[in-house]
Design brief:
alpha+beta, 3-stranded mixed beta sheet, 7 helices
Length: about 210
């Protein structure tokens, strides 16, 4: 391309992906660059060591390996939000029952169909992710609610500027939810500092180093 005075305009710089995956470079090259200290892992993708990793980058890393038109939920959503340090294994995804999308099973992924409201989903790095309220509600409903699960919910609430009462109110507006009563009891205990309700075992004690 030439400008008005016949001079060649500089070619625009290539747009780099938020994360690098085997779709960008061979996996062997990515792993070699990681060993050389040039890249670090973000789930199944990579980032340059001088580039921070935030929600957009974690979302982009998940979007690079997720089936089409799914939503990250539960522990996967908590990881994208930044409430846990490591991505879960396997990743957890859901799909809206109204979308008429029926993703098949995939290795290292758990998929389920759920009812999703518009306010239940946000997007980071091109990856749909359940909102803070929805993620906390789902963790209270479906996790064992160990000490680690409680910490994850507390961290999510802090990140989103929310409190347990708002999650209880969110659950109260939903009808016919499985494990709704159990989740409300857990969240009320979390808000008041009461002991965890029966059926939620404590986290295993750490083993002292020899």
């Amino acid at each position: 391309m030439f400008g008005q005075h016949g001079r060649m305009n500089p070619r625009p710089a290539p747009v780099l992906s938020a994360v690098l995956s085997p779709l960008d470079l061979p996996l062997a090259e990515l792993c070699a660059a990681r060993l050389d200290g040039e890249l670090y892992r973000v789930d199944e993708c990579f980032r340059p060591v001088d580039s921070p990793s935030g929600r957009a980058e974690r979302g982009a890393a998940l979007a690079a390996v997720a089936p089409a038109r799914v939503i990250a939920e539960l522990g996967s959503a908590a990881w994208v939000w930044g409430a846990v340090g490591e991505p879960p294994l396997p990743h957890r995804f859901c799909v809206d029952t109204m979308s008429r999308v029926h993703p098949g099973a995939a290795a290292g992924r758990i998929l389920r169909e759920v009812v999703v409201d518009r306010d239940d989903v946000v997007s980071f790095g091109g990856m749909p992710v359940t909102s803070v309220l929805r993620t906390c509600a789902d963790l209270a409903r479906f996790s064992l609610f160990t000490d680690a699960d409680e910490r994850t919910v507390r961290t999510l609430l802090d990140l989103g500027g929310r409190n347990p009462g708002e999650v209880v109110a969110y659950l109260g507006r939903r009808r016919n939810l499985p494990h709704k009563r159990k989740a409300i009891d857990r969240l009320c205990a979390l808000a008041t500092g009461r002991p965890r309700p029966p059926g939620a075992p404590p986290a295993p004690a750490a083993v002292p180093a020899p």
